[in-house]
Specification:
heterodimer, A: 113 residues, mainly beta, 11 strands, B: mainly beta, 5-stranded mixed beta sheet
Chain lengths: 113, 115
Protein backbone atom coordinates (compact mmCIF):
# COMPACT_ATOMS: atom_id res chain seq x y z
CA UNK A 1 0.00 0.00 0.00
CA UNK A 2 1.13 3.55 -0.70
CA UNK A 3 2.17 5.52 2.34
CA UNK A 4 3.98 8.54 3.71
CA UNK A 5 6.69 8.08 6.31
CA UNK A 6 8.76 10.39 8.44
CA UNK A 7 12.05 9.81 10.20
CA UNK A 8 13.15 10.04 12.84
CA UNK A 9 9.96 9.92 14.90
CA UNK A 10 11.69 11.54 17.85
CA UNK A 11 14.82 13.69 17.89
CA UNK A 12 16.67 15.60 20.57
CA UNK A 13 19.33 18.02 19.43
CA UNK A 14 21.32 20.93 20.76
CA UNK A 15 20.97 24.58 19.91
CA UNK A 16 23.02 25.54 16.86
CA UNK A 17 23.20 22.09 15.29
CA UNK A 18 21.94 21.36 11.81
CA UNK A 19 19.08 18.89 11.74
CA UNK A 20 17.37 17.20 8.80
CA UNK A 21 13.95 15.58 9.03
CA UNK A 22 13.08 13.09 6.34
CA UNK A 23 9.76 12.68 4.55
CA UNK A 24 9.14 9.94 2.00
CA UNK A 25 5.93 9.20 0.12
CA UNK A 26 5.06 6.38 -2.23
CA UNK A 27 1.85 7.93 -3.59
CA UNK A 28 3.81 9.47 -6.51
CA UNK A 29 2.29 12.80 -5.52
CA UNK A 30 3.61 16.00 -7.01
CA UNK A 31 2.70 18.19 -4.02
CA UNK A 32 4.48 17.88 -0.69
CA UNK A 33 4.17 20.04 2.42
CA UNK A 34 5.84 20.55 5.79
CA UNK A 35 3.86 21.81 8.80
CA UNK A 36 4.74 22.40 12.41
CA UNK A 37 2.32 22.11 15.27
CA UNK A 38 2.63 23.91 18.57
CA UNK A 39 0.21 24.35 21.43
CA UNK A 40 -1.91 27.42 20.85
CA UNK A 41 -0.98 27.73 17.17
CA UNK A 42 -2.42 24.67 15.48
CA UNK A 43 -0.72 23.53 12.28
CA UNK A 44 1.32 26.10 10.38
CA UNK A 45 2.82 25.69 6.91
CA UNK A 46 6.62 25.85 6.73
CA UNK A 47 7.55 25.00 3.13
CA UNK A 48 5.90 23.27 0.22
CA UNK A 49 6.77 21.89 -3.19
CA UNK A 50 4.70 21.37 -6.33
CA UNK A 51 7.24 19.11 -8.01
CA UNK A 52 10.88 18.21 -8.50
CA UNK A 53 13.16 21.23 -8.09
CA UNK A 54 10.23 23.41 -6.97
CA UNK A 55 10.14 24.82 -3.43
CA UNK A 56 8.08 27.61 -1.86
CA UNK A 57 8.04 29.36 1.49
CA UNK A 58 5.09 28.98 3.76
CA UNK A 59 3.83 30.96 6.72
CA UNK A 60 6.74 30.19 9.06
CA UNK A 61 9.76 29.45 6.85
CA UNK A 62 12.52 31.39 8.66
CA UNK A 63 15.27 29.03 9.84
CA UNK A 64 14.10 26.17 7.63
CA UNK A 65 14.97 24.98 4.14
CA UNK A 66 13.82 22.20 1.81
CA UNK A 67 15.01 20.69 -1.43
CA UNK A 68 13.17 18.44 -3.87
CA UNK A 69 15.48 16.27 -5.95
CA UNK A 70 12.93 13.55 -6.68
CA UNK A 71 9.18 12.99 -6.44
CA UNK A 72 9.24 10.82 -3.35
CA UNK A 73 11.24 12.90 -0.86
CA UNK A 74 11.11 16.36 0.70
CA UNK A 75 13.67 16.65 3.50
CA UNK A 76 13.32 19.56 5.91
CA UNK A 77 16.55 21.10 7.22
CA UNK A 78 16.95 23.30 10.25
CA UNK A 79 20.14 25.16 9.45
CA UNK A 80 20.95 26.10 13.05
CA UNK A 81 18.44 24.67 15.48
CA UNK A 82 16.88 27.03 18.01
CA UNK A 83 14.78 26.29 21.08
CA UNK A 84 11.85 28.01 19.36
CA UNK A 85 11.91 25.21 16.81
CA UNK A 86 10.98 22.62 19.39
CA UNK A 87 7.75 21.31 17.91
CA UNK A 88 5.99 18.42 16.23
CA UNK A 89 6.60 18.38 12.48
CA UNK A 90 4.20 16.85 9.98
CA UNK A 91 4.84 16.11 6.35
CA UNK A 92 1.98 15.76 3.86
CA UNK A 93 1.47 15.07 0.18
CA UNK A 94 -1.31 15.46 -2.35
CA UNK A 95 -1.88 14.89 -6.04
CA UNK A 96 -0.84 17.39 -8.70
CA UNK A 97 -3.97 19.46 -8.75
CA UNK A 98 -4.45 19.31 -4.99
CA UNK A 99 -8.08 18.50 -5.60
CA UNK A 100 -8.31 15.70 -3.16
CA UNK A 101 -7.09 14.88 0.27
CA UNK A 102 -3.69 15.52 1.71
CA UNK A 103 -2.11 12.48 3.28
CA UNK A 104 -0.19 13.23 6.44
CA UNK A 105 2.74 11.41 7.93
CA UNK A 106 2.90 10.28 11.57
CA UNK A 107 4.96 13.29 12.67
CA UNK A 108 8.42 13.93 14.11
CA UNK A 109 8.74 15.27 17.62
CA UNK A 110 11.81 17.51 17.74
CA UNK A 111 13.26 18.88 20.96
CA UNK A 112 16.01 21.49 20.83
CA UNK A 113 17.88 21.86 24.12
CA UNK B 1 -9.04 31.49 1.42
CA UNK B 2 -12.19 32.18 3.41
CA UNK B 3 -11.99 32.20 7.19
CA UNK B 4 -13.91 29.60 9.20
CA UNK B 5 -15.45 29.71 12.66
CA UNK B 6 -15.97 26.58 14.74
CA UNK B 7 -16.98 26.00 18.36
CA UNK B 8 -14.01 25.35 20.60
CA UNK B 9 -15.36 22.10 22.00
CA UNK B 10 -18.32 19.74 21.87
CA UNK B 11 -19.42 16.60 23.65
CA UNK B 12 -21.30 13.61 22.29
CA UNK B 13 -22.56 10.35 23.77
CA UNK B 14 -21.23 7.16 22.26
CA UNK B 15 -23.59 5.76 19.63
CA UNK B 16 -25.29 9.08 19.03
CA UNK B 17 -24.79 11.35 16.04
CA UNK B 18 -22.18 14.07 16.39
CA UNK B 19 -23.02 17.26 14.49
CA UNK B 20 -20.11 19.65 14.13
CA UNK B 21 -20.95 23.10 12.76
CA UNK B 22 -18.73 25.44 10.77
CA UNK B 23 -19.39 28.98 9.64
CA UNK B 24 -17.71 30.26 6.48
CA UNK B 25 -19.78 33.31 5.60
CA UNK B 26 -17.13 34.80 3.26
CA UNK B 27 -16.76 31.69 1.13
CA UNK B 28 -16.26 32.26 -2.59
CA UNK B 29 -17.87 30.39 -5.43
CA UNK B 30 -14.73 28.40 -6.24
CA UNK B 31 -13.94 27.38 -2.67
CA UNK B 32 -14.52 23.90 -1.34
CA UNK B 33 -15.25 22.94 2.26
CA UNK B 34 -12.88 20.32 3.65
CA UNK B 35 -12.97 18.49 6.95
CA UNK B 36 -9.98 16.88 8.61
CA UNK B 37 -9.54 15.46 12.07
CA UNK B 38 -6.56 14.87 14.28
CA UNK B 39 -6.54 12.18 16.88
CA UNK B 40 -4.12 12.83 19.72
CA UNK B 41 -0.46 12.59 18.67
CA UNK B 42 -1.30 11.52 15.10
CA UNK B 43 -1.17 13.32 11.78
CA UNK B 44 -4.37 14.93 10.51
CA UNK B 45 -6.70 12.64 8.62
CA UNK B 46 -8.93 13.64 5.73
CA UNK B 47 -12.65 13.05 6.32
CA UNK B 48 -14.67 14.57 3.51
CA UNK B 49 -15.04 17.59 1.25
CA UNK B 50 -17.72 19.26 -0.85
CA UNK B 51 -18.56 22.27 -2.97
CA UNK B 52 -22.32 22.83 -2.83
CA UNK B 53 -24.02 19.45 -2.72
CA UNK B 54 -24.28 17.31 0.38
CA UNK B 55 -21.70 14.55 0.46
CA UNK B 56 -21.49 11.22 2.24
CA UNK B 57 -18.75 8.65 2.55
CA UNK B 58 -17.96 5.77 4.85
CA UNK B 59 -16.80 8.10 7.61
CA UNK B 60 -19.24 10.98 7.65
CA UNK B 61 -21.77 13.20 5.94
CA UNK B 62 -21.27 16.83 4.98
CA UNK B 63 -24.28 19.13 4.83
CA UNK B 64 -23.69 22.50 3.16
CA UNK B 65 -26.38 25.17 3.36
CA UNK B 66 -27.87 26.47 0.15
CA UNK B 67 -26.11 29.82 0.51
CA UNK B 68 -22.87 27.93 1.33
CA UNK B 69 -22.18 30.16 4.31
CA UNK B 70 -22.15 27.29 6.77
CA UNK B 71 -21.81 23.55 6.89
CA UNK B 72 -22.22 20.65 9.31
CA UNK B 73 -20.13 17.52 9.57
CA UNK B 74 -22.16 14.58 10.81
CA UNK B 75 -20.66 11.46 12.35
CA UNK B 76 -23.75 9.24 12.38
CA UNK B 77 -22.80 6.89 15.21
CA UNK B 78 -19.95 8.35 17.21
CA UNK B 79 -17.53 6.01 18.94
CA UNK B 80 -14.85 6.66 21.54
CA UNK B 81 -12.29 6.50 18.73
CA UNK B 82 -13.90 9.57 17.16
CA UNK B 83 -12.61 11.72 20.01
CA UNK B 84 -10.35 14.18 18.17
CA UNK B 85 -9.89 17.76 17.01
CA UNK B 86 -11.99 18.43 13.90
CA UNK B 87 -10.88 21.06 11.43
CA UNK B 88 -13.13 22.80 8.93
CA UNK B 89 -11.09 24.30 6.09
CA UNK B 90 -12.21 26.32 3.11
CA UNK B 91 -9.93 26.23 0.13
CA UNK B 92 -9.94 27.34 -3.48
CA UNK B 93 -8.72 24.84 -6.03
CA UNK B 94 -7.58 27.11 -8.82
CA UNK B 95 -4.54 25.54 -10.42
CA UNK B 96 -1.73 28.03 -10.13
CA UNK B 97 -3.52 30.16 -7.54
CA UNK B 98 -1.79 31.22 -4.36
CA UNK B 99 -3.74 28.76 -2.28
CA UNK B 100 -3.15 25.95 -4.75
CA UNK B 101 -3.02 22.70 -2.81
CA UNK B 102 -2.36 24.31 0.57
CA UNK B 103 -4.42 23.84 3.71
CA UNK B 104 -4.80 26.56 6.35
CA UNK B 105 -5.68 25.06 9.70
CA UNK B 106 -7.57 26.98 12.36
CA UNK B 107 -8.02 25.90 15.96
CA UNK B 108 -10.73 23.36 15.19
CA UNK B 109 -13.36 21.80 17.46
CA UNK B 110 -12.34 19.37 20.18
CA UNK B 111 -14.94 16.60 20.05
CA UNK B 112 -15.11 14.37 23.10
CA UNK B 113 -17.20 11.22 22.83
CA UNK B 114 -18.38 9.91 26.21
CA UNK B 115 -19.30 6.30 27.05
Amino acid sequence: DAEITQSPRHKITETGRQVTLACHQTWNHNNMFWYRQDLGHGLRLIHYSYGVHDTNKGEVSDGYSVSRSNTEDLPLTLESAASSQTSVYFCASSDRLGLHEQYFGPGTRLTVT
Amino acid sequence: DAKTTQPTSMDCAEGRAANLPCNHSTISGNEYVYWYRQIHSQGPQYIIHGLKNNETNEMASLIITEDRKSSTLILPHATLRDTAVYYCIVRALNAGGTSYGKLTFGQGTILTVHP
